[in-house]
Structures are given as C-alpha cells and as structure tokens.
C-alpha cells in the first residue's frame, strides 16, 4: 500500500477554547499506482487530511503509514518529502524565482544534485506538464499565462520525482480549456511514471472519469468509499450532505426512470449515447 491510515484524527488547538476536530478517525488504504479521489464540501477535512501524507501535519491520534514509513515514529522528513509531492490550491502563487528554470529546479538543487542532473529533471518535469523547455526556461514565471503558471508550479513538484503526488483542487479557478489541459497532463503523468495520485476535488465529473477509488468526507469523517460507480450510485446520500453527482449520473437516473436501459456507473457521453441508441433500437 502507498498510504494506510487507521482511525487518523487531527484536532487543531487541542486543549484550548478554540479546539476543533478537523479529521475524525479516518481509515483508508490507497494502493500503489492508484488514482484516489477525495471529495467533500468546504470544511469537510479534505485538505487537513492530505497534509498529513507528506508530514506537514502530525496526527493527534491514530496511525499513518506512507510508502512503508511509519509517521507516528521518528522518520526522515526530507526523504518523505522527496517521495511525496504536495501541490496546494493555486500553486502558481508560490512561484518566486527569476526564471522558470530556476523555479522548477529549486527543489532538486536543494537536494545537492549536480547542475547537469538538475537540468535533466527540469527538462523532464516541463515535458510532463507540456511546456517546452526552450520556450519557457529563461522566462520569468510571471510572464506565463495563468494555465502555464500552474503547470510550471506543478512541474516544480514533479521535478522531485515523487512516488506519490497529492493534488489539492488542481483545476480550481481555471476555465474549461485550462481544466481540460491540467487533467490531461495529470493522466499522462500517471501513465508515464506509474506514480500514485491522490486528488482532492469538488468536481464530481472530473473524478468520476479519472479515479479508481473515491472517498467521501463529511464533517471530518469518511462516510462512503469505493469505485466511482458505487459512490455516485448513492445520489440521495450525497445530496443530503450538500454534494452533487456527475451530470451524466443524474441523466442516467432520469433515463432509467423513463424506461431506458442505462447501467449505473456510466460517466461518459459516448457510453451514454451507446446505451440510449441501444434502447431506441430495442436492443437491451
């Protein structure tokens, strides 16, 4: 397993009048190479949870193991953060170097790698995020477009060659084209590297198509988990806690009520069209 939590709990400002339990006895098993989605409304504990995975936060109670490292014991934080990359919301706000090359290479240089190795990693990372090294390396990151800035910021994490990549709302604030580009880049990266992806998102349509497993959080707890088709089949429960289901899942439910044969777990327009066409032809 890449990540194992057992009854992980995190309490902010414990023992003070401002005590707040953000994560409440969360247990999850994330397999190596898996694409795991975490969904929940604002304040459900998603971001607090994933910040444990690279050691930014320490569990108040419960256990946590990441890539075989027991985070409840003394461990090498540098080694962990080399293996687990965390991309915050709006990562472009964290760009700070004079050039894209220096910004993407900041982490590898801090590892004490040779300049040749750093440049190789920068080139590789920019290729993964679909930015041409010769076009952007010498530019200020602040000259890039919004979507390019975000990809450059993500490249800085990828340059560390993490085995686990955690993405907190990676498409937030982007237009449809920007979202499509970022998601395509994430899928391509997973195929090329085989890394484990943990993605926090409010966008059910994104995760329905990408995730192998989804965890649903509400008030700090995991209330549902499983394959997307199983999680999104429980439309009433998701609605009850203020979440939506993918648009095509809603369409499938409406069509089933009208006698069309559309199996649960259909989340692409192509699949939906095939089943509707089959019904119209009388082919069930």
SSE blueprint:
Blueprint: E1 3-12, E2 20-30, E3 35-39, H1 46-50, E4 61-66, E5 69-70, H2 77-83, E6 84-87, H3 100-104, H4 106-110, H5 115-128, H6 133-136, H7 146-158, E7 164-168, H8 176-193, E8 196-200, H9 204-210, E9 213-218, E10 221-226, H10 228-231, H11 235-240, H12 247-257, H13 269-280
Parallel strand pairs: 3-8, 3-9, 6-7, 7-8
Antiparallel strand pairs: 1-2, 1-4, 4-5, 9-10
Helix pairs in contact: 5-7
Averaging pLDDT over every residue, what do you get?
91
The number of helical elements comes to 13
CATH fold name: Rossmann fold
Helix content: 25-40%
The value of Rg in angstroms is: 21 Å
Uncertain residue ranges: none
What structural class do you assign from the helix and strand content?
alpha/beta
Hey, roughly how much beta strand do the residues contain?
Answer: 15-25%
Order of strands in the sheet with the most strands? Answer: 6-7-8-3-9-10
How many separate domains? 1
Strand segment tally:
10
Q: What series of H and E elements makes up the topology?
A: EEEHEEHEHHHHHEHEHEEHHHH
Q: Based on CA inertia axes, which overall geometry fits?
A: globular
- At the first level of CATH, the class is Alpha Beta
Q: End-to-end distance, in Å?
A: 40 Å
Second CATH tier, the architecture: 3-Layer(aba) Sandwich
Give me the CATH superfamily: P-loop containing nucleotide triphosphate hydrolases
Largest sheet: 6 strands, mixed
């Amino acid at each position: 397993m890449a990540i194992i939590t057992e009854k992980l709990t995190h309490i902010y400002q414990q023992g003070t009048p401002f005590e707040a339990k953000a994560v409440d006895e969360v247990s999850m098993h994330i397999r190596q190479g898996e694409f795991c989605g975490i969904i929940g409304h604002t304040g459900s504990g998603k971001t607090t949870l994933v910040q444990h995975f690279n050691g930014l936060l320490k569990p108040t109670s419960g256990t946590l193991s990441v890539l075989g490292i027991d985070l409840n014991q003394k461990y090498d934080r540098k080694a962990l953060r080399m293996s687990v990359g965390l991309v915050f919301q709006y990562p472009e706000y964290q760009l700070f170097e004079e050039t894209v090359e220096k910004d993407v290479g900041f982490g590898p240089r801090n590892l004490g790698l040779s300049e040749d190795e750093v440049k190789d990693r920068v080139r590789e990372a920019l290729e993964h995020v679909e930015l041409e090294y010769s076009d952007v390396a010498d530019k200020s990151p602040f000259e890039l477009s919004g979507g390019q800035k975000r990809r450059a910021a993500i490249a800085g994490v990828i340059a560390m060659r993490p085995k686990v990549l955690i993405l907190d709302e990676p498409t937030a604030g982007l237009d449809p084209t920007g979202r499509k580009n970022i998601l395509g880049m994430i899928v391509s990266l997973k195929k090329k590297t085989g890394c484990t992806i943990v993605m926090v998102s409010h966008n059910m349509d994104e995760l329905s198509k990408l995730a192998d497993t989804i965890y649903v959080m509400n008030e700090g707890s995991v209330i549902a988990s499983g394959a997307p088709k199983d999680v999104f089949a429980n439309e009433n429960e998701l609605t009850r806690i203020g979440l939506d289901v993918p648009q095509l899942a809603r369409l499938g439910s409406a069509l089933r009520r009208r006698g069309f044969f559309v199996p649960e777990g259909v989340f692409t327009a192509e699949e939906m069209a095939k089943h509707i066409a089959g019904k119209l032809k009388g082919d069930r």
